[in-house]
Amino acid sequence: MKKISLFVFGLSALLTGCQPKADTFAGRLSVVETPQVFRYRPGLPARVSAHRGGGNYPGYPENAVESFAYLVGQTPMIIECDIDLTRDSVLVLLHDKTLDRTTNGTGPLINKTWAECQEYRLEDNFGTATNFRIPTLEQALRWGKDKCLFTLDVKRGVPFTKVVDMIHRTNAASYAAVITYNAPDAATVYRLDPQLMISVSIGGQEDYERLRAAGVPDQNMIAFVGTAEPDPALYQFLHTKGIACILGVLGNLDKQAEVRGDQQYRTFVQNGADILATDRPLEVAQALR
Question: At what angle do helices 160-169 and 183-192 cross, to 10 degrees?
Fold first, then answer.
């Protein structure tokens, strides 16, 4: 009960004052506004994004709803997860093109039907098998309502139309953003739904200008600024536009923090990062408290 209370308190702190004409986290946002929960706001506490929804904790595989529940049961969390397609066009959560690394199956995902995928079990990053199955995007989004935020990494070859349709079907637009890697893709997602938040890659002001030229408004952007700290001026520039900034600490910066101490994560935030995308979400959350 204590963990649940802490989660609700923390989630409320993230959301207070940043919703337009709505009183809940999911489902009742004004149709003329983008979900303000993803927008930059001065004074908003830094947030943690779990890369691939976890995976570096024994017994909890990446891209598993059970792993998402394990994380958000302890602290408010953004869940970044990966979306790909089965042979029969079911949207599922899987990072790799093959089943070999993260399940006890083998071969390309695209060669398997959804029913065949249910025969396999997920493995954690240490190679230990679990009883968890590959989830569908629909299952994850329905589970996540009122529990977490999502950023959805759409793998190459997966139509954005299918992902946006699933967001609509599950009424998840107020708590799910779509990740893109270039201006044309961001523009495609914006045309499909002008209310959706979009994670866009901005390593410099020229990237921002390309996005604006493609027709993507500031209010729809969440800026992924890279996996190395950018010039602080970039943070300042984006903040003046109301755009929150994600720093990918996964990889080298996570390793740096392990060596130098987890207080390093606070430095990243002091330098301007609003969201830390990490393979160590629980450690980062603890360091930022």
Answer: 40
